[in-house]
Every structure is written in structure tokens, then in C-alpha cells.
Design goal:
transmembrane helix; 305 residues; single chain; Major facilitator superfamily (MFS) profile domain-containing protein; mainly alpha; MFS
Length: 305
Amino acid sequence: MYFFNSAGIMLTYFTINYGLGAYIATYCILFGIGMGIPYSVIFQVASSWFPAHRATVVGIIASGFGLGALVFTPIQTRIINPNDQQPIKGMYPPEVVERIPRAFLVLGGLVLGLEITGLLLMRTCPDSRVQDKLKRAREDNSKCDTPPVEQESLSIMEAIKCVDFYILFGVVFCDVIPISLLTSTFKVYGIDSGLKDKYLSDIATTCAAFNCVGRVVWGSLVDHCSSKCPLLWLLLQWGLLFVSYPYVAAGPAGPYLYAIWIFAIFFTLSGHFVIVPAACTRSFGPKNMATIYGLVYAATVRQCR
């Protein structure tokens, strides 16, 4: 399962020439399975080493998803469009299109190497280490007037019966709409506004840095307060940015305002990938977090429509 991700990318080198159905089978279904199944497991394994700072750890791990574009976007641009050729009537020149299949092989090979490295390094924290860290956390909390409360872990069936499960499911279901809209159209919007492809690629690369740093910042914020307040702040800020987004690219300052808005939106949306898993852990406990979060994240299936 861990290698379905890279396999889906590399096999697309062949299926891209056999129609939309074959392309969907490798780059959407196979790639999606390889990314989705290990997703919550990695969070649970990583956070097991730091039980007192789970949200921050999830933010650091999730920042890798944001950092990926910072690494892969320049490589992708260098392979496919090294001369910064612009589309003509919505279509790129044939020499640009011909380089796309090779990009799948190169990027898939890089992903495979990272997957093997990560799989060799990843392991669950021994129970003794967890207990020691929890003991130190309790000793720190003993200085407070309020005694520490032991967190109970719910079973999967108990979690499904909780209203919090469906609230989080609804949050993910709604949040995925602007995420999909932004990631699939922000470059198209930039091209329609007259911005150069190279400039947009540079913006996409820089966005990855904001996405990466944002996940760590949001994770640290959640560790120091509840999940609800950061989530409300995120949604309010996100809404304001999206409402004003269609108007920022016009005028002489358009290229600069466009970049600022994209950076701010990506910094904001990064919190979604940290707050929701942290809320799952706080609501249902850490024991079955991977499975429960996987069920909550199944709300993203609407992206496939």
C-alpha cells in the first residue's frame, strides 16, 4: 500500500496515452489509495512519540505535504517547460506536451525513493517511552490547581455514535470545496490575468513554503488552546480572502496583490490539515486516531466527482 503512490505516478507514463479511464485508474485511484491509506497512520505513529504535543507534531509531519510542492514544482517545471513557453489559445506548444510523460517517471522515481526512506525510518514509540513522557507531563501539570485528566480512547463504533464525529465529517466535507477550487484553478486564474507561467510557477513554489510553515504554526496554536477557536479563526480568515480574491489581480499592482493573496490563502488552508486530526485525537483519544481520522477524511471523496 505504501508504494501505490509512486506506482500510480510512474504507471501514468504509460496510461496517459490510453485515454481518460486508464489515466484515472493510475493517477487518481492508485495514487489516491497510496496517499490516503498511510495518511492517518503516519500521524498516529509520529504523535505517539510526543503525547503532550500531538498537534504540533502533526503540524510538523503535515508540513511535509506543503513542502513537497517547494521541491517538486521547480523539478516539474524544469522537465516540462524549461523555456517558459506560454499557452496559445489555452494550449501549450507540442514540445511542452511531449515532455509530460517523462515527468511522471522522474517524479515517481523520486517519490519512491522518499517512500522507501520514510518506511525504513518510521516506527511506533514503545509503550514505556510514552508512559515516561505522560508521567513528566503529569508532573508539570501537578503545579496547576486543576488536576490532569486522563484521556479516554473511544472505540471506532463509539466514535461513530458521537455527534462530534459527524461535525468533523461535515467540516471536512465543506472545507474540501475551496481547497479543491484553489489548488486546481489558481494558476489558470493567473494565466487568464496575463501573468507569466514562470512567475506563476515561482508563486506555486513559494506557496509551498507558506503551506509548510503554516501547518507548524497552526499545530502549535492548537496545542496551546482548543481546536474550536483556531478553526473558527481559520474559516473566517479563509472566507474573507476568498471573497476578495477575484478582484486582486486587476490593475498595475495586480501581480503583487495576487501573490500576497495566494500566499495568505495557502497559509490559512494549511491549518485544516492540522486542526482536524488534532480535534479527532482530543475528541476520541489517541488509540484509534488513525482509523477514526481516516473515516472522517472519507468526506473528501466528493473531490472525485
